[in-house]
Amino acid sequence: MKKILMILVTLCLAVAVSACGGSKSGEQAAPSGSGTAPETVTSGIDYMALVNKLNPLPDGWEEALETVHFTNTVGDDVEVEKKAYDAYLEMKAELENEGVFVDLDSARRSVADQERIMNDFTEKYGIDYALKTVAKPGYSEHHTGLALDLYLIVDGKDIVENEDMIQYPEIWSKIHAKLADYGFILRYLDGREHITGYGYEPWHIRYIDDVDVAKEIMEKDITFEEYLGAVKTGDVTIDLGSSELYTQDELKEAAVQIKCQFAGWEGCELHSLRYAGDENNTEENIQWLNELGSGTEYVQCAKFLMDFHSPTEGSDSETWKPDEEYKDYSWWLARTADGGFEVVSWGFGR
Ligand SMILES: [Zn+2]
Questions:
Q1: Has 201 been annotated as catalytic?
Q2: Check: CATH 3.30.1330.60 for 9-228?
Q3: CA of residue 9 to ligand 1 center, whole Å
């Protein structure tokens, strides 16, 4: 793995390599952060704590956290919360009985490490790129020590790159079937990006130290956020329409980018998202997006339309009218000659 990729993958936050980027600029700023005060850890850690793009690591967590270190098969030092590591070892042994071999790519990363990486990226690539590729310090589940990124060992070979790992769905199914028995859940489900803020990651598992709850979550096929009642969710309609410019996979990936961004809008409930048609890929629109993208040379663009509901209470009133159905809200994505779609702008008006 290339060094830079290694850093990115090790973070799993990051994610030039994963599905969720950020936006360059929006006509309307997304509400930032969470209004809720972080819980304080007094003794031990809360294995059911929710840490995501809206919920930071609880205060005192790092002081209370007990971890172990080990070296994985590719020679990296990996740090994991103690109980999670014991449970992982038991699961790993059971998987080996079934001919499935795994190891840990990364697990815990401190908030300070995250800040250092954010600073490094900012220095090297500028703040825009850093914000787009590196998770905000304090808001990564990897801070907990309870989030583990697995990798596969197939026929004695380490399979560590995300795009390679995704090629083994049958192995992941076997692994996922075992998770709950050891108190783990799968965290970033396919199609639930608007809730978790991340694209599908079969390798990212989370220890919750409660087999019954883990079984309930896995059997119901729901996200941790949904189990905890931390998000408002209803039926979501995704309509990728038809296109002569883009494949359905490309449009799906574009929709994932939008949904990841949307997940950061606290209290908003997604209802529908649809591709607005090839006719929006005009020279004029691409030029407009290039201006917004400050120097990026996009060659194609795509527009989506979204219906969503704003939060009823505790909402950011400067951003949203409370308890309102927003219809035909525009999302603009663009891509360069050799890149994937990224969200460039959103809002009413264009
Ligand atoms: Zn991860």
A1: yes
A2: no
A3: 8
